[in-house]
User: Fold this.
Amino acid sequence: MDSRQIEERAAAWLAKRDSGEWTAEDERELAEWLAESACNEVAFIRLEAVWDQTLRLKALGAGKRPGTVPPPNAWRLSPYPVEASQSKSLAAPGIGTPGAQRRRSGLLAAAAVFLVVIVSGIVWHVRSQGPIYRTAIGGIATVPMSDGSSVTLNTDSAIRVAVTEVQREVELDRGEAFFQVAADPKRPFVVNVGKKRVVAVGTKFSVRRIDEGDMRVVVTEGKVRVEDASALVTLRLIPPRESPSNSAQPTAARPMEGEIFLNAGTVARSIDEGLLVQRRDLAEAEEYVGWRTGFLTFREIPLRDAVAEFNRYNERKITIADPSVAAMPISGKFRATNFEAFVRLLEDGFPVRARHTTEGIVLTDRAKT
Amino acid sequence: MDEPLKVWFAREILAHEAALVRYLLRAWRNRDDVHDLRQEIYARVYEAAKQSRPNSPRAFLFTTARHLLTDRLRRGRIVSIEAVGDIEELNVIVDEVSPERRVTAREELKRLARAFDALPPRSREVIWLRRVEGLSQKQVASRLGISERTVESHIFTGMRQLADGFLATSLTQGDGAATVLTKIGDSTHGQQTD
Assistant:
């Protein structure tokens, strides 16, 4: 019997016992059924415990006229508490919920979110020297903007924000940020990464700055336009092997002269003057921005790339000593700041040995040691 | 059945159902398995507790959960670690609610009321008359002008919905209260179910 059938059976026993027509024979059969398996027992206990609890509803019935069932939500208790869990899941790890923060283990937790806000006067007065927001390694922070948009900064990131009456502009100086843009056709929303610009009107996307001036853009809703300030540069086609950490083939690599539109589900990586555009299904594109909830999702990527991702979030770094280990394909979903768990899982499931040093963790091939 | 064990089980284990289910949903890819996994975890914990009660029930529950998931993986010969995801997630989950923090009777009553309010109107009526006003199933049937069999079936289904609604919000979901980490973290790996 599967668990649902067992639960139904347990409920049937309880409902029957409650009917008042309960014989010694029933009692004996129930005892036999319970003795059959612990699964039966726990299913029964679970329902019985809750059924016993229902007697406490009497406390709510006090003062009510007998024979009438009070309508829902009409109890004299104080209003039900707001589901804190909902706001928690939205704010997810990082900023906003001190409790959530305290929960995280490891040394990073203490320093996890370190948001520096330099308020330089009133925002609309400020042009490109707008407020600066930063996160430390392992930190995540969400910053509301005055136009109703919001920016979520990933680990070790920095942005400058300038909202004016004609334009909304963000300089991504370092790291990665996810933008949820409030629609406003009169004021384009521009993210600058070096000389490249990502322009959006009412959409959700993430931009990550990689090295000098290169970037990766992930669009999860709406559409964005990518421009290059030095628009006359000719772009070369980027071969797939240069694609960052993923096996999917690029479907387009276009010159970046003028502008390029990216739709939802697109992952684009710029390398030098080229832009590599990959169409993914939306769910997969969402995985790229899963860091907002503190998770990293890998699909069949070499361990070296997975490790590189982890290292962005943690002060203690993982290094790989053997090429055979570096190339192992890895899939999974992990908490970004819990790299110890990741390493333990690797040791459990793969021929990998982890050596803990003062600087971090070194992974070696177990077969060789 | 062993009455003290039942009471212990309801108070110390079932109280963590919401957290357990959240953990399973996060750690196991197939949502359809969660009901089954939950029951098997409960059964293992219950069997173990027949021998001796664990010192830290919550930690023991989650350790059992982790072992079960690992067993399932081995049985399925799943090579990728994808299926369990971040199984060590439990280090985070376990300390989600401090063991010191007991839900007050008042909070519990609120949760009960909420779960009760979420029942379909007829089941809600039946359970109210039966449990609050203390009518027998037979009296409920005549009061509402329905058959006794229908009353019993409302109890049969209402009870399960009530259990899901009540236990699914069990404990202090995300109350953000300061929690004790080290204490629980230490005992997590201390108890073995196998």
